[in-house]
Design a protein that fits this description.
The chain is of the alpha+beta class and 481 residues long. Helices cover 37% and strands 27% of the residues. The protein has 17 helices and 18 strands. Strands 8-7-6-9-10-12-11 form a seven-stranded mixed β-sheet, with helices on both faces. The protein has a three-stranded antiparallel β-sheet with strand order 1-3-2. Strands 17-13-18 form a three-stranded antiparallel β-sheet. Helix 1 packs across helix 9 and helix 4 packs across helix 5. The longest helix has 17 residues. The chain is elongated, with a radius of gyration of 26 Å.
Length: 481
């Protein structure tokens, strides 16, 4: 379909100041929070002045009908064209949205993203179509915060959906490619690229299929990772059609073949927690020895909660077949020995020494987390030995606990205030080593001094603590100078 309406639509949105900041200010805190809960009444009350900004907010975000004359003022000369394109529909004297067009603030620029309408506003029962194109979601914003934003030559948005990741990638990549199997999604990605005046090479096909042997410096993907039995209708934006967590495994295994040396693949994903197997052991088997990796499990969801969440997402909750589909899904989990579903981040870097770090960290992190992930991979490249001169990160604080008057604390914890905000319990040697790491003395010199003070054999102390120093660097408590 022709996208010649994109430029005048952009001009109308700019003229109305239809930006994230302006809409947030218009709605105010109460209505903004209400909309985040899919409640529109407070927002409707705040947008009754007939201004172009209020009209666009009502039309697209609140999914309320507006008077034809108001729509024409906000979208001069565009109402009929947008109806023909499928973004709007009109009846006698009124106009309503058939697609969502909302402002989005990303990477210090104002963007607009077209997608399918948000289902379930004001509790209305909604069944989304099989080719539904999801808009900006918590998953998409999580991936955006996860992605490392270093300047790169070529970037890939794998399973692009509405194209929001491609828009982010276009701010720091010389060339952006986006793939998807859903043709409606590809049309919206092309529209969003035109609407935001960026160049994206959009290709139809399943995951890596349209790419042949092409390689990239960065791959970002929020794949259809929902772990579900092959029953009922398939929602393309969330259901891959592959069994279990196979779609994530295939991406992790296949990505290195499409990465340049030092290139990074970042995946937002679910994975199965299988009885009798540690989660990290399963995922470690997906990783190649010629790649570095950082895998973080952020959350583990109970099977029943997981099933409820996704059945509600599909609009099945409260329908006659809800109990049978719920039971079938749980039975399928039991048959496969799936005791829970993990959610988190998989980061794979091509090349390196094959250092794989898999950890569970369910606590708050600093957002965006992308810079901390970049720091981690920088640390894995560094050699750490007795001659290394290290520095304690300035945001690391030490906490001690123990009974009053005790000569030594019972526990010592070092805690980061930024990045991953990791905490680690350390002994007195580790605490002293971190405290003495100011870049002036080598690791060997510091350990020798600690050995002399504590009357411990220096060689024994070096042998014991040099691997721990490597861990402290990998975890971000110490940095190389």
């Amino acid at each position: 379909m022709d996208l010649d309406f994109a430029a005048p639509l952009r001009a109308a949105l700019v003229a109305a100041d239809f930006t994230y900041g302006a809409v947030t200010s218009l709605l105010g805190p109460q209505a903004h929070r209400g909309l985040s809960r899919n409640e529109t009444t407070p927002g409707v009350r705040r947008t009754a002045d007939g201004s172009a900004l209020s009209t666009l907010t009502r039309l697209f975000l609140l999914q309320a009908t507006v008077a034809r004359e108001d729509a024409e003022r906000a979208l001069p000369g565009l109402v009929d064209r947008l109806c023909n394109a499928g973004l709007l529909e009109q009846s006698v004297g009124e106009v309503a949205a058939r697609m969502d067009c909302r402002p989005y603030a990303g990477d210090d620029v104002d963007l607009w993203v077209v997608s399918d309408l948000t289902p379930g506003l004001d509790g209305a029962p909604t069944r989304v179509g099989t080719d539904h194109v999801l808009g900006i979601s918590s998953a998409s914003t999580s991936l955006a915060q996860l992605t490392v934003r270093a300047d790169v030559g070529r970037a890939l948005d794998l399973g692009t959906g509405c194209g929001v990741q491609a828009l982010h990638l276009a701010t720091h990549a010389g060339e952006v490619v986006a793939t998807d199997v859903n043709r409606r999604a590809l049309w919206m990605t092309r529209l969003n690229a035109a609407l935001n005046e960026v160049s994206v090479d959009v290709r139809e096909g399943s995951f890596f299929e349209p790419l042949a042997t092409e390689r990239f410096d960065l791959i970002a993907t929020n794949p259809p990772f929902v772990i579900s039995p092959a029953t009922g209708e398939r929602l393309v934006y969330r259901d891959s059609g592959l069994p279990g967590d196979r779609v994530v495994e295939d991406i992790v295994r296949g990505a290195p073949a499409h990465l340049n040396e030092g290139g990074l693949c970042q995946v937002l994903a679910n994975w199965s927690i299988v009885a009798g197997t540690d989660w990290d052991e399963r995922l470690a088997s997906w990783l190649r020895d010629d790649c570095d990796a950082l895998v973080i499990q952020r959350e583990v969801i109970d099977p029943s909660e997981y099933v409820e969440m996704w059945l509600k997402d599909a609009g099945v909750h409260g329908t006659p077949d809800y109990p049978s589909r719920y039971d079938t899904w749980l039975s399928w989990f039991e048959d496969l020995g799936i005791e829970g579903v993990g959610f988190g981040w998989i980061n794979v870097r091509a090349g390196g020494s094959g250092r794989h770090r898999l950890e569970e960290w369910r606590y708050d992190v600093e957002q965006p987390i992308g810079p901390a992930i970049a720091d981690h991979f920088d640390a894995t490249r560094s050699e750490v030995g007795l001659t290394s001169r290290l520095q304690a990160r300035i945001d690391v604080l030490q906490e001690t606990q123990g009974p009053p008057g005790a000569e030594d604390p019972a526990t010592i914890v070092v805690r980061q205030q930024r990045g991953f905000r990791r905490a680690r319990q350390v002994d007195t040697v580790e605490a002293a080593l971190i405290g003495a790491s100011g870049g002036d003395l080598s690791v060997g010199q510091i350990l020798d001094a600690i050995a002399e003070i504590t009357d411990v054999d220096a060689d024994e102390l070096r042998t014991t603590y040099l691997p721990i120093v490597r861990d402290l660097v990998d975890e971000g408590f110490l940095t190389t100078t």
